[in-house]
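Methods — Computational structure assignment.
A single polypeptide chain was analysed. Its primary sequence is given first, followed by the predicted tertiary structure written as C-alpha cells.
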Amino acid sequence: MASSIPRIQVPPEAWQDLTILFQKGIRVDIETGCTVRSLLLDQWHLPPEVVTERISTLFLNGKPVDDMDEARVRDGAILALSSAMPGLVGAVMRRGGFYAALRSGITYHETTANVDVRNGSITVKLFNMLIGELGPLFLQRGFRVSRQDLPDSIPSGSEDVDEPNSEVFIIASPPSSC
C-alpha cells in the first residue's frame, strides 16, 4: 500500500456497514500471475473447505470460472466470489455445475501460457453469504476503496480533501488491550 493513501481504522465489526462496498468492489494488493486457486489458498490463506464448498460461483473479468487451476489473475483484474445462488441462473453459473455447458460460450478460458508474476492489485467483489464470511477477513488485512463510496457511518478522513474520488485504505483497528 502506498503511504500517500489515507488510512482509516474502523472497529472489526464495521464490516457490516461495508456490505455495499464489498458488492461494489474493494481493491486489494496481491502477487499477480497466480491461479485463482493459488490466490485463494496461498495468498489469502482461506481454508480449503471454504474454497471448494462455500465459493461455488466465481467470475474473473465478468466470465464464469470453472477451473480455478487454469484461470490466472492479472493486475487490474476483477474477481467476483459468491456462494450458491438460487434458481436457474445460480445453477447455470455454479462452478463445474451440471448446467455449466449452457454457458460454454462465456466461460473463462486461459489464453496465455506465460503470465508475469509481479506485485499488483485487483478488485474483489463479494456476494451473499460470502460477505459475512470473507468480509471480516478482508477488513483485517485492509483494502482500498474510493472515498466517495464510503458509507456515512464510516468517517472519510480529512473533510478538506480536494479529490473526492481519491482512494482510502480501510483496515480493522487492532483489538484493545484492557
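Note: Residues 146 and 167 are 4 Å apart (CA to CA).
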